[in-house]
Each structure stands twice: as structure tokens, then as C-alpha cells.
From TrEMBL:
<keyword id="KW-0963">Cytoplasm</keyword>
<feature type="binding site">
    <location>
        <position position="127"/>
    </location>
    <ligand>
        <name>ATP</name>
    </ligand>
</feature>
<keyword id="KW-0808">Transferase</keyword>
<feature type="binding site">
    <location>
        <begin position="85"/>
        <end position="88"/>
    </location>
    <ligand>
        <name>AMP</name>
    </ligand>
</feature>
<dbReference type="GO" id="GO:0004017">
    <property type="term" value="F:AMP kinase activity"/>
</dbReference>
<comment type="function">
    <text>Catalyzes the reversible transfer of the terminal phosphate group between ATP and AMP. Plays an important role in cellular energy homeostasis and in adenine nucleotide metabolism.</text>
</comment>
<feature type="binding site">
    <location>
        <position position="92"/>
    </location>
    <ligand>
        <name>AMP</name>
    </ligand>
</feature>
<protein>
    <recommendedName>
        <fullName>Adenylate kinase</fullName>
        <ecNumber>2.7.4.3</ecNumber>
    </recommendedName>
</protein>
<feature type="binding site">
    <location>
        <position position="139"/>
    </location>
    <ligand>
        <name>AMP</name>
    </ligand>
</feature>
<dbReference type="InterPro" id="IPR033690">
    <property type="entry name" value="Adenylat_kinase_CS"/>
</dbReference>
<keyword id="KW-0545">Nucleotide biosynthesis</keyword>
<comment type="pathway">
    <text>Purine metabolism; AMP biosynthesis via salvage pathway; AMP from ADP: step 1/1.</text>
</comment>
<feature type="binding site">
    <location>
        <begin position="10"/>
        <end position="15"/>
    </location>
    <ligand>
        <name>ATP</name>
    </ligand>
</feature>
<keyword id="KW-0418">Kinase</keyword>
<dbReference type="InterPro" id="IPR000850">
    <property type="entry name" value="Adenylat/UMP-CMP_kin"/>
</dbReference>
<feature type="region of interest" description="NMP">
    <location>
        <begin position="30"/>
        <end position="59"/>
    </location>
</feature>
<feature type="binding site">
    <location>
        <position position="36"/>
    </location>
    <ligand>
        <name>AMP</name>
    </ligand>
</feature>
Length: 193
């Protein structure tokens, strides 16, 4: 199963992707996590991405496309994967389609988690508080100013992509304001129909 999860920052993509990955025994491919790991490991990709991520902007398509292409070539992706945070631009979506076509594969489901804008900031602030309470370190881009920029990038660059998949008749929207377990159930229902 090859699945794309869409949603603005704070919509719960990461949580749902992780659950689905466990249930279906396929990897969760989070480009945000991959990029943060690249920054931590100070790789060339990390060095190119760091300042851009700190501003809450999207890193260049070529960089992310290459990272995803390398990742889905790995053995554990053969039976499927859950894309969390990719594609985020029309150019990335086109690159993904081409990458999969080369292998004779395609995406099976494209799911959007819809959440009201006002709830997103509250969710981000709760994530920061929970992380700090657990003794962890908050994400550098989880602050009000950078978060506003991330929302703006989503609205301008990623939301138009929903139309790309809608036109292809592939998009399913799910109410992400519901409890986490209900959202998981709704996604599973889409996958079995
Ligand atoms: P969120 O969806 O909550 O904003 P992510 O962890 O998915 O957070 O992404 C964090 C940052 O990583 C983004 O703000 C962006 O700078 C970068 N990033 C992640 N995925 C992509 C992508 N597909 N294209 C461009 N930049 C990306």
C-alpha cells in the first residue's frame, strides 16, 4: 500500500502516519523527520536545509525529491510506504508520479486531514508543552512566528496540490478535528473501500 497523507502543520499527520505504519508493517516516510536527521548529522542536505527550515519555508524541490527517491529505492519500501509531508508542491507530486512509474508502481490513496486554522496553533503549543514536560527539546520551528510562516507556505504551495489530486479523482478528505482514534478509523475505512 502506498499512501500520501496531507494536512497543514499540526493536523496530526505524523501521529496517524506512525499508527498506520505500525498496523500495516510498512515504513513512515516523513520528509520533515528525514531533514531534521540530516541537520543533526550535519550532512550536505542538512547544511542546505537548516536555515530554510528555521524560517519555516519549504526547502528546494530537487533536494527533497532526491531524498525521497533514494529512500523509496530501499528494500523496506518494496511493499509500500506512508508519505508524511511529501509531496508538498506540484513539482514534487509530478516527480513522485515519475519515480513510481519507473518502477511500475502508483499511489493507492491520497488522504487530506482537514483541521480549522485556529486549532492548529493551539495544537502546536500543546506539542511544545508536552515535549518540554517530558524533558525533551521542542522543535526549533515550533514557535508562533515560524509556525505562521509554515501555515502560509501550506496555504500557498501545498493546498493547490489538493486540486491536483482532486482532479485526478484520488483525494479523500477526512475531518481531522475528531479524536485521534476516530481519525485513524476513518482512514482505515478509506483504505478498505
Ligand atoms: P509540519 O508539517 O508540521 O510543518 P514537517 O516536519 O513535515 O512539519 O516539516 C518541517 C519542515 O521541513 C518544513 O517547514 C520544511 O522546511 C521542511 N520540509 C519537510 N518536508 C518538505 C517537503 N516535502 N518539501 C519542502 N520542504 C519540506
Amino acid at each position: 500500500m502506498r499512501l500520501i497523507l496531507f494536512g497543514p502543520p499540526g493536523a496530526g499527520k505524523g501521529t496517524q502516519a506512525q499508527r498506520l505504519a505500525e498496523r500495516h508493517s510498512i515504513p513512515q516516510l516523513s520528509t520533515g523527520d528525514m531533514l531534521r536527521a540530516a541537520v543533526t548529522n550535519d550532512t550536505e542536505t542538512g547544511r542546505r536545509a537548516k536555515a530554510i527550515m528555521d524560517r519555516g519555508e519549504l526547502v528546494p524541490d530537487d533536494l527533497v525529491n532526491q531524498m525521497v527517491s533514494d529512500r523509496i529505492d530501499q528494500e523496506d519500501c518494496r511493499k509500500g510506504f506512508i508519505l508524511d509531508g511529501f509531496p508538498r508542491t506540484v513539482a514534487q507530486a509530478e516527480a513522485l508520479t515519475a519515480m513510481l512509474e519507473q518502477k511500475g508502481d502508483k499511489i493507492d490513496a491520497v488522504i487530506e486531514l482537514k483541521v480549522e486554522q485556529a486549532s492548529l496553533i493551539t495544537r502546536m503549543e500543546k506539542r511544545v508543552a508536552d515535549t518540554l514536560a517530558a524533558g525533551g527539546t521542542a522543535r526549533r520551528d515550533d514557535n508562533r512566528d515560524t509556525f505562521a510562516r509554515r501555515l502560509d507556505e501550506y496555504q500557498h504551495k501545498t493546498a493547490p496540490l489538493l486540486n491536483y489530486y482532486r482532479r485526478r479523482g484520488e483525494l479523500v478528505s477526512i475531518d481531522g478535528m475528531q479524536g485521534m482514534d476516530v481519525v485513524t478509523r476513518d482512514i482505515e475505512n478509506v483504505l478498505t473501500t
